[in-house]
């Protein structure tokens, strides 16, 4: 029987761009998506020099200008550019494999804090295990309902500026897991194959369980059935003295790679690890954390999502290599942490919005009493060597917990409504506030990273919007001087930011192109071009501000660690009338302080609003 394709439409906004979503088969468009272009070499070289202008000295810039000229005209750049264009013709996406490796799989820092983002959901109103079980059961049912859309390829296709976006990342986030290697990790996806996974893993008091979430006829368990199964898990994991095997996954990747090979020498351990890796996702039933004041609550939960709070709290109640881990605390805290290699924030947040809406809708209906098998507890044989590895991981995790400085700013004065009223892009407005805050604290500006989605292209991931520009520098300097045309400079800076954003999402930014040229020269085994050995290149890549806008309908906040030891990680969700901002820094760096930066951001946002309103009032007189 042939069904005509039905199509519903609805809109929601991400930052300043309306995203049109059409509900139709999501992979229909995949084949027709354009390939990621290779930008013209001259354009990238000019863009690179423009990006350096506000962040390096005049002498350094002159030196780099010379090197760029040689690269552009001396034949080396041209040869690499041709090689890159050849690669683009031969592959589906010239960048994606290189990016996955260089940004994630080759990276040897721990995934916890350093690369895995956390998401804090609004505080729930339960304070006991009953509420925790009910919430977890509904959440699992919601994710399984979302999975049904992925499996049947009826996921809404997202559109940006009238163009369909690549939906591939949605197919990478369930039933996948990162696997450590001694020098490079891999990601396995068990959703792609003959037999797809039918279980999730649940971890409570550091003990892992396999929970089958489908009946024998293929229907998902009801919320009521899931609730009963979670009760069984809870009751058979009451001991709190178990070895936190999961904490091993928080180690430096080389250390974990060695410990992993040692752990899976044992057959039982290997089977248990495989069961976790193959599971659709993981649910972490966390023990309650020490109470803090309402003002500190969001920041404490953000830290809990990133690292679990330390070895004596919930850091062992995780498998950090698992792509999706939902965290439900007995004290009403909830959220998730995700391993970054397979996907960016927007698909994760889209999943959250879907699940939250589903949970508001669904009621617990008493199910017919079909006896369900006891969820299987995963056994681990802890040899003295494994025990030593666990002890080392606990020590390192506690150092990491003490080092991470987290501050969540719930900015309640205004949201997207103010910049929109003054015809400014909300994203550019927030970014200029970050620039102003940084300048006021350090009397200089720095290399700033904002991620831009390349999902207009097949298998597109991200590129960089370089936020610090000559125009942003002119604006932040003018803010110290009332005699300057500050409103005009703000308008100019935000417009430049908007143009840079447009170029980045259309595959015309600078950074990934430079990465491609650099990777190619490594693969060709030719000598590394001078521009990549230059001080300016190191400065450009040292992002003291690593930022991302992750907009959602749910009032949540995403957070991630800084990119560099003396930097900040800043993730923000601009809602209509307020802005959620999560700021991280490292305590081991004396110059950075998340709370001070949050204060500076709040001051910058308020001053920028005052600037616009004063100008508007003057114009009306």
TrEMBL record:
Localization: Endoplasmic reticulum; Mitochondrion inner membrane; Peroxisome
Keywords from the named record: Acetylation, Acyltransferase, Endoplasmic reticulum, Fatty acid metabolism, Lipid metabolism, Membrane, Mitochondrion, Mitochondrion inner membrane, Peroxisome, Transferase, Transport
Membrane-protein topology: Peripheral membrane protein
The EC number(s) this enzyme carries: 2.3.1.137, 2.3.1.7
Pfam families, sorted: Carn_acyltransf (PF00755)
Residue ranges of the TM segments: none
Protein known as: Carnitine O-acetyltransferase
Organism this protein belongs to: Takifugu rubripes
């Amino acid at each position: 029987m042939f069904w005509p394709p039905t199509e519903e439409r609805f809109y929601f906004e991400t930052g300043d761009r309306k995203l049109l979503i059409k509900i139709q088969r999501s992979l229909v468009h995949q084949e027709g998506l354009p390939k990621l272009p290779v930008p013209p070499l001259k354009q990238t070289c000019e863009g690179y020099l423009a990006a350096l202008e506000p962040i390096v000295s005049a002498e350094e810039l002159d030196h780099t200008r010379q090197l760029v000229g040689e690269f552009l005209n001396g034949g080396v750049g041209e040869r690499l550019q041709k090689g890159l264009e050849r690669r683009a013709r031969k592959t589906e996406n010239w960048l994606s494999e290189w990016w996955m490796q260089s940004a994630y799989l080759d990276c040897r820092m721990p995934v916890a804090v350093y690369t895995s983002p956390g998401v804090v959901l609004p505080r729930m109103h339960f304070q006991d295990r009953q509420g925790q079980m009910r919430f977890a059961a509904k959440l699992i049912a919601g994710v399984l309902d979302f999975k049904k859309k992925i499996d049947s390829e009826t996921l809404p296709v997202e559109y940006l500026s009238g163009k369909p976006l690549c939906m591939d990342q949605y197919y990478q986030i369930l039933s996948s897991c990162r696997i450590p290697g001694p020098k490079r990790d891999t990601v396995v996806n068990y959703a792609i194959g003959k037999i797809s996974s039918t279980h999730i893993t649940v971890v409570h008091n550091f003990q892992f369980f396999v929970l089958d979430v489908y009946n024998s006829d293929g229907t998902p368990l009801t919320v009521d059935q899931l609730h009963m199964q979670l009760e069984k898990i809870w009751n058979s994991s009451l001991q709190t003295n178990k070895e936190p095997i999961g904490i091993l996954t928080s180690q430096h990747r080389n250390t974990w790679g060695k410990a992993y090979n040692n752990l899976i020498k044992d057959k039982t351990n290997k089977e248990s690890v495989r069961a976790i890796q193959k599971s659709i996702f993981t649910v972490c039933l966390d023990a309650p954390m020490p109470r803090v004041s309402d003002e500190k609550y969001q920041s404490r939960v953000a830290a809990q999502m990133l690292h679990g709070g330390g070895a004596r709290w919930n850091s062992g109640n995780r498998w950090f290599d698992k792509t999706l881990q939902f965290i439900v605390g007995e004290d009403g805290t909830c959220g998730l942490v995700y391993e970054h290699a397979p996907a960016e924030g927007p698909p994760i947040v889209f999943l959250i919005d879907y699940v939250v809406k589903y949970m508001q809708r669904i009621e617990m209906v008493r199910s017919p009493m079909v006896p369900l098998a006891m969820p299987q507890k995963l056994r681990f044989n802890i040899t003295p060597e494994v025990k030593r590895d666990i002890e080392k991981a606990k020590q390192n995790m506690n150092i990491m917990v003490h080092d991470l400085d987290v501050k969540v700013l719930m900015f309640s004065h205004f949201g997207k409504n103010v910049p929109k009223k003054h015809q400014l892009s909300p994203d550019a407005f927030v970014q200029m506030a970050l620039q102003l805050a940084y300048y006021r604290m350090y009397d200089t500006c720095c290399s700033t990273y904002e991620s831009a989605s390349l999902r207009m292209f097949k298998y597109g991931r991200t590129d960089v919007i370089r936020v610090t520009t000559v125009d942003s520098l002119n604006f932040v300097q003018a803010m110290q001087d009332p005699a300057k045309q500050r409103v005009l400079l703000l308008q100019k800076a935000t417009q430049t930011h908007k143009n840079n954003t447009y170029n980045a999402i259309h595959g015309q930014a600078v950074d990934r192109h430079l990465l491609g040229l650099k990777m190619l020269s490594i693969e060709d085994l030719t000598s590394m071009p001078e521009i990549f050995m230059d001080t300016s290149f190191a400065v450009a890549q040292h992002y003291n501000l690593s930022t991302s806008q992750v907009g959602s309908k749910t009032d949540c906040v995403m957070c991630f660690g800084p990119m560099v030891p003396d930097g900040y990680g800043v993730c923000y969700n601009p809602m209509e009338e307020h802005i959620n901002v999560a700021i991280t820094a490292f305590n081991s760096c004396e110059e950075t302080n998340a709370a001070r930066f949050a204060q500076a951001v709040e001051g910058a946002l308020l001053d920028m609003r005052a600037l616009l309103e004063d100008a508007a009032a003057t114009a009306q007189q």
